[in-house]
Write a sequence for this structure.
């Protein structure tokens, strides 16, 4: 609806996405460190805002932008509980979340009323046990934003070596990290399974194409032992792996990240998680909008405006994608095999703290403006021209998965 | 049994959260599950020793019971002596 977007934009100017300058500084630092003109040409505000701009999103306060799958709800104890419901099967867990067999899981009003009868900390604890993406506006991330979990042997690479990236991730954060590594000149293979494809390809093709262009595409049937073995063989000759699975999911597929990092010289393994890759938090589910809340961004905005709401669009995703690429490139250049855990909620918290240390007045002004702009459209971002073809799913199986 | 109730196995380490339940007796490893861990451990019945997997949802054939494993163990789940089975994996979200 470009006409509607234009008319809204003329009545209220679209605010800048807070932390976009932080994102831009990371991109520029990465570009300098790796002498990459392609990375240098990217703009932090464009990377953070392109999905919302592509989709014509508006700022919706306590409802997340765009599809609106995440909501901030007041709780009995005066807290704010964020719940993301974007998988229908998750709604089946709502009676257990609220201890109420009668709740209508399709009715947000009923969900909000149930949340108002509980304490926030109790809802977050039970939601995490149930595997629901939940957050409290007042929690502190339990994990380090970036944590080296396992180390392995070094690899000396010849000067002309073109690194290979195996990208097992989906949605936004992980694929964006893969895209930035592709921009930095690496060869990237996107891996999907026929039963669990990356649904962004179907649901948001504009964004999918921008962050997956130029990647080879393979489909792996995880029920087939030969194909799984071929994937492990591909990983063993890779320089970087990106994944965003919960730990048990990979192990159940027969992929042991820690063992591979100990075995394969120079292998850099990026584990993108909601709340950390170690301990109990590794089991928690986190998605871009609720992780923004868990990282303290909604509370920071409420402290400035008196009104709580979501900041940006799934803001933890692009911040994490950029951080993962930066860490991945640095680790690759070090030559040492390592598995790096990235926590989306802790990365949001880190970005806010660093931005406030850098220029507190500027970021607080942006948060304030964001909180006062409910109803206005996201700032328009000129669509990045595609630089390479988007490969259809499975187009490159023969080249990468001989079996 | 109220949704959200947490039950512990008497025969192993398994813990579940009740998603949905009727009036039957929920068991693990062949023994009834309780909200409190019993002081006396029950023996693990050979017929119910396939183990539980963290994060899996277990259902009966009629869809009257659904239990989420929040702590794995050696026993397997049943209701009134009839084994529960693993529900299919969740699809990935389309967007957020």
């Amino acid at each position: 609806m470009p006409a509607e977007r234009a008319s809204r934009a003329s009545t209220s100017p679209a605010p800048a996405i807070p932390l976009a300058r932080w994102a831009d500084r990371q991109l520029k630092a990465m570009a300098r460190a790796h002498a990459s003109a392609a990375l240098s040409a990217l703009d932090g505000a464009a990377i953070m805002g392109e999905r919302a701009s592509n989709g014509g999103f508006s700022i919706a306060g306590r409802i997340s932008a765009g599809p609106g799958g995440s909501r901030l709800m007041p709780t009995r104890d005066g807290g704010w509980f964020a719940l993301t419901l974007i998988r229908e099967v998750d709604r089946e867990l709502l009676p257990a979340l609220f201890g109420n067999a009668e709740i209508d899981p399709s009715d947000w009003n009923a969900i909000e009323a149930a949340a108002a009868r509980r304490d926030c900390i109790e809802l977050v604890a039970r939601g995490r046990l149930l595997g629901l993406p939940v957050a409290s506006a007042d929690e502190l991330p339990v994990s380090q934003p970036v944590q080296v979990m396992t180390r392995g042997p070094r690899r000396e690479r010849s000067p002309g070596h073109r690194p290979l990236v195996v990208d097992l991730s989906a949605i936004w954060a992980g694929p964006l990290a893969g895209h930035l590594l592709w921009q930095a000149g690496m060869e990237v293979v996107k891996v999907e399974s026929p039963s669990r494809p990356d649904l962004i390809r179907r649901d948001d093709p504009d964004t999918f194409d921008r962050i997956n262009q130029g990647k080879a595409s393979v489909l792996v049937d995880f029920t087939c032992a030969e194909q799984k073995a071929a994937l492990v063989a591909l990983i063993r000759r890779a320089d970087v792996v990106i994944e965003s699975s919960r730990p048990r999911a990979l192990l159940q597929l027969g992929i042991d990240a820690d063992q591979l990092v100990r075995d394969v010289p120079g292998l850099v393994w990026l584990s993108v998680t909601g709340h950390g890759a170690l301990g109990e938090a590794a089991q928690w589910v986190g998605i871009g909008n609720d992780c923004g809340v868990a990282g303290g961004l909604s509370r920071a905005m409420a402290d400035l405006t008196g009104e709580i709401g979501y900041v940006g669009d799934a803001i933890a995703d692009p911040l994490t994608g950029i951080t993962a690429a930066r860490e991945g490139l640095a680790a690759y250049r070090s030559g040492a095999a390592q598995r790096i855990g990235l926590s989306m909620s802790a990365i949001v918290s880190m970005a806010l703290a660093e931005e406030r240390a850098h220029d507190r007045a500027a970021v607080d002004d942006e948060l304030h403006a964001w909180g006062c702009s409910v109803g206005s459209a996201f700032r328009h971002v000129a669509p990045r021209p595609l630089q390479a073809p988007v490969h259809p799913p499975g187009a490159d199986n023969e080249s990468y998965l001989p079996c | 049994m109220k949704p959200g109730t947490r039950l512990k196995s008497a025969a192993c380490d398994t813990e579940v959260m009740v998603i949905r339940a009727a009036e039957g007796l929920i068991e693990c490893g062949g023994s009834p599950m309780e909200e409190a861990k019993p002081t006396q451990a029950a023996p693990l019945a050979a017929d119910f020793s396939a183990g539980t997997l963290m994060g899996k949802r277990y259902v009966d054939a009629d869809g009257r019971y659904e239990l989420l494993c929040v702590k794995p163990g050696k026993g397997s789940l049943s209701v009134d002596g009839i084994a529960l089975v693993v529900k299919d994996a969740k699809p990935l979200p389309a967007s957020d």
